[in-house]
Design brief:
Blueprint lengths: L8 E2 L14 E6 L2 E6 L5 E5 H9 L12
């Protein structure tokens, strides 16, 4: 198996959409995909990195571009 898995972080105050348990969701990256998993019931959600970047940058405004000489 050739997968890359990063450190897991818990999401404070988050509630699992499946079992409704609070503070049981962990966030981690696996093969450039952000994943969330509930440690209580095993429910998983994932989102490709390109969708995350697009959502994060949707409300950004470019002021200028720095071009070093």
């Amino acid at each position: 198996m050739n997968s890359t898995r990063s450190k897991k972080r818990f999401i404070a105050g988050a509630t699992c959409p499946s079992c409704k348990s609070m503070d049981t969701l962990m966030l981690y990256m696996e093969n450039n995909v952000e994943k969330v998993e509930c440690i209580q019931c095993g429910h998983q959600m994932s989102q490709p990195e390109t969708q995350i970047e697009k959502a994060a940058r949707e409300h950004e405004t470019v002021i200028g571009v720095f071009k070093p000489e």
